[in-house]
Amino acid sequence: MEDNSSAEPTGILALWNDCKTNKESLYEHWYQSEHLQDRVSIPGFKLGRRHQSSDATPKYFTYYETASAKVLFSEAYLYQLDNPSVLTREVMQGTFINVSRTVCSRIHYVGEMRGSHVITARSSRPSDKDGLKALADQLSKTSGCLRSEVWVRYSLNSSAVEYNPRLEEQMRGRDSRIEWCVVAHALNESTTEQIEREFQQFSYPTLQLGVYRFMCELRHED
């Protein structure tokens, strides 16, 4: 279980996005043949995990785990962002849309297993970290909740590196950002409904809820 006392908590790149209608084949070809492998092969990346929703907006939720958030500002990663492939350029120009992308630190988690469904509760306004941890602890007691995590936005001392958009973002348009996210992994769909009711008991500004089913995962060692 990670917390604020950890010198280098796990890094998280959290992404929500839509895919332009009628571009799904191109989108999946990009992810399956190139993009996921390119990202996860970068030193310091642990895994990439993709999810899809039938009714949430945005439709897709993807996250990458890294050794620390600093990996997401490394020379190797920034090089990829500034030197997109021909296929990535095509996808960035109108296929990969409505993007929320944030570099985070995972400051707390409970449980080990990951489930077939995840619920994400995210906000663009800061919140008390201890309160978010308490929420994750409470969710973990729900029958069928396999794992709950707290992610908070990571900031570098150098705003020039952090806020100047890289070429990929320039091509698709500026991304939105979150301040925090609580992620709950559920055993099945009925568990997600119960966890969703738990979330709805809490009043957080600009809270956005989404239920997503697992699609695929790639680990660095693969």
Kindly describe this structure:
The protein has 222 residues and is an alpha+beta fold. It has helices spanning 24-40, 75-82, 86-92, 129-140, 159-163, 167-172, 189-200; strands at 11-19, 45-52, 60-66, 96-110, 117-123, 145-153, 180-186, 208-219. The protein has a single domain (11-219), classed as 2-Layer Sandwich (Alpha-Beta Plaits).
Give a short summary of the structure.
The protein is α+β, with helices and mostly antiparallel strands. It has seven helices and eight strands, in the order E-H-E-E-H-H-E-E-H-E-H-H-E-H-E.
CATH architecture: 2-Layer Sandwich
The class by helix and strand makeup works out as: alpha+beta
Cα-atom Rg, whole angstroms? 17 Å
CATH first level: which class?
Alpha Beta
Give the amount of beta strand, in percent.
Answer: 25-35%
Question: What's the layout of helices and strands?
Answer:
Layout: E1 11-19, H1 24-40, E2 45-52, E3 60-66, H2 75-82, H3 86-92, E4 96-110, E5 117-123, H4 129-140, E6 145-153, H5 159-163, H6 167-172, E7 180-186, H7 189-200, E8 208-219
Antiparallel strand pairs: 1-3, 1-4, 2-3, 2-8, 4-6, 5-7, 5-8, 6-7
Q: Keyphrases for this structure?
A:
single chain; 222 residues; Alpha-Beta Plaits; 8 strands; 33% strand
